[in-house]
Amino acid sequence: MKTENPAGNPQKKFDFSPAHQRPFVANLPATIDIYEEGVARFFRWRTGLDYYLAVDQVVDFAVSIERVKVIDLLTDTATFALRLAARKAFAGRIYSFDTNLTLTERGKQRAAHLNLHPFVEFKHLRESQFPVSDGFGELAVSFFDLHRHPADHYLAEILRILVAGGHLILAELLVPKSIQRSLPWFLKRMHLRYIQKNAAEAGAIYYDQEEIIQLLFKAGFRQVIIKGLSSPESRYGGVFSLIAATK
Fold it and tell me: In this structure, what CATH number is given to the domain that contains residue 188?
């Protein structure tokens, strides 16, 4: 299966190789490097949405609830953390974690270049437990990452690090079980595994709307709100959604 990049050139595969340690040029924060370009392109292919517009909707929500201690559960491209830190209406601090040391260092470089380092701190995550105390954060944000984790453990850990009354924002693809059992969905997984060489995404676990609500309530969250950010491009696509829950 081939897709088109913004310039119209065919792409046979997405590049998900980790960014390598290398000197950072002065204008790096103003450009998209190969890794981020691959993430943005994959996100559009998987959800039908523009990566940056979707991130901005999560940023909008984070700003609107006026929480000042934010935990970014996955640094990745650092787009969410840096866009939130750059908002004039945001008066807090962001703590962003990733198991990939190169990506956290890249985030630090970008934050320093953009003069946002007083508002965001990037930390290398060495284990599944976040190195913060119980009730540390007021808001935790997971952007397109839940499907890569065992949900029970992941949500329990998020609940631990949130203060009472704190919020969780999950931006995730919700997929009905009927679609997950279909042949097109199976072929898409095979495409991810053997064409894209992306085993993590090929083995991802997606939930439907009722399942995600049950998982959140089981973990101890309450007041779950779900807002679909996209319409399926076909009957075999899921809906990328903004899911908010309160501890």
Answer: 3.40.50.150
